[in-house]
Each structure stands twice: as C-alpha cells, then as structure tokens.
Design brief:
The protein is of the alpha+beta class. The protein has three domains: about 1-35, no CATH class; about 40-180, DNA methylase specificity domains (Adenine-n6-DNA-methyltransferase TaqI, Chain A, domain 2), CATH 3.90.220.20; about 180-225. It is built from six helices and ten strands, in the order ααβββββββββαααβα. The chain has a four-stranded antiparallel β-sheet with strand order 2-9-6-7, with helices on one face. A four-stranded mixed β-sheet has the order 4-3-8-5, with no helix packed on it.
Length: about 220
C-alpha cells in the first residue's frame, strides 16, 4: 500500500521507527479510521492504584502473573497465594473486580483478562496495565472483546519496542484505535461472544466426561471388574 504525503506526515508526528510504517500496520489502521472509532485513552480510565506490600494482607496475598492468563479465552487459570516475605518486587498492581488487565510484555499474544468473581482485591505483576472505568459510549465487555481481537493486537505489536520480548508502554497502549459502533451493536457483539463461550464450556465439559468414561472402560478391559 502506498502512503500519501498527508498520511505519512501524520504518522511521522507520532513515531520515527521504520517498522512502525510496515504496510500491514498502516493498512489496518486506515481501515479502522474509515469507521467510527476513538483512541483507547478517550474511552477508559487506567488505574494507577499500587500496593506497597504492607497493607491489605496479613501473611500472604493472592497474586496474578502474566503466565496465568489463558491466551485462548482470557481466563485466569491460577491465582497463586504468595507469602508476603517472598513477594516479588513486581507484585505491585492492585486489581479489583471487573477490571480489565492487559499484559504489556509481548502484548500481541493477547494475555488480556476481564477479572470477575474475586473477593476484594488481588495483586498483579507490574507487567500488566489495568483498565478500571469505561466511558458511557462503550461497554466494558465489548471493549474487552475488541482488545483481544487481531485488529487490536496488531496495533499493540506496532506500538511495541524491544527485541525478543517486545513491550508496550501505557502511553503507547492508550493510542490504539478502538472501533466504536452504537451501543446496541456493541451489546449484540457481547451477546454473540458470551453464547460462544457458553457453547465452548459445554463442549469442554462433554469432552471431559467422554474421556472419563473412556479411561474407566480401558481400565475395565485391562484389569477386569
């Protein structure tokens, strides 16, 4: 794709690194710009709430690491209990129920989760950034879904820097463009997504039951009974 002079100057005001202008990035951004959209920073409030490793907990605390985020469906697979005496220096971010957490290390992997069903607070690695509030023009669940889409992850990749483990700063993350359809369309997208998740969970439960019965049958065949 050939970039016209006006578009090129617009991008130069933002970044100077040549990889930023890769055609796959520019084409995607221009496609989003053809739709109603806003940059992320105009739609959300990021949380700056941090833990001093003294308050809130007695001897141990619940801790989320980046590796605990399932990149396939965004679920948190494990919240570890860590002794305060052994708290890693990166255990600083306070996460509350209904926050969206985004891994800023290799963000294009999609280690992004919408935190639900936790009691009070948990602590997360400083490798996450935390979105706490969204403006009335965007549903938080819609935002979460969009952040995990290829169109957002590619923008995060574009705005990352570093070698084998590229990272994105919060300032660069704020600049990614979010498609902004009417609220009713956002809700329809959320409903479709939630139905898909429910279907996935039902099929996974069915598959586990099939495997359980298969193991019992194999054991019966081997040892009898």
């Amino acid at each position: 794709m050939r970039l016209n002079k006006v578009k090129y100057l617009e991008y130069l005001n933002d970044r100077m690194d040549s990889s930023f202008f890769n055609s796959k990035y520019i084409s995607l951004v221009n496609s989003i710009k053809s739709l109603p959209h806003k940059p992320l920073y105009k739609l959300v409030e990021f949380s700056s709430e941090t833990w001093n490793q003294d308050d809130y907990f007695e001897d141990s605390f619940p801790y989320i690491e980046i590796s605990a985020i399932d990149i396939q469906d965004g679920t948190i697979t494990e919240i570890n209990t860590v002794e305060k005496a052994n708290a890693p220096s990166r255990a600083k971010k306070i996460v509350r129920n209904n926050d969206i957490i985004i891994s800023t290390t290799r963000p294009n992997r999609g280690a992004i989760s919408h935190v639900k069903n936790i009691n009070d607070i948990v602590i997360a690695s400083t490798g996450f950034t935390v979105i706490r509030e969204t403006k009335k023009e965007i549903l938080k669940e819609y935002l979460y879904i969009i952040l995990r889409q290829h169109s957002s992850l590619i923008q995060m990749e574009q705005r990352s820097s570093g070698g084998n483990y590229p990272a994105i700063t919060e300032e660069e993350l704020k600049k990614i463009l979010i498609p902004l359809p009417p609220i009713e369309i956002q809700q329809e997208i959320v409903d479709i997504y939630n139905r898909a998740i429910e279907e996935k969970q039902a099929k996974e439960k069915e598959a586990r039951e099939i495997m359980r019965k298969t193991k019992i049958e194999i054991e019966r065949m081997i040892i009898g009974g």
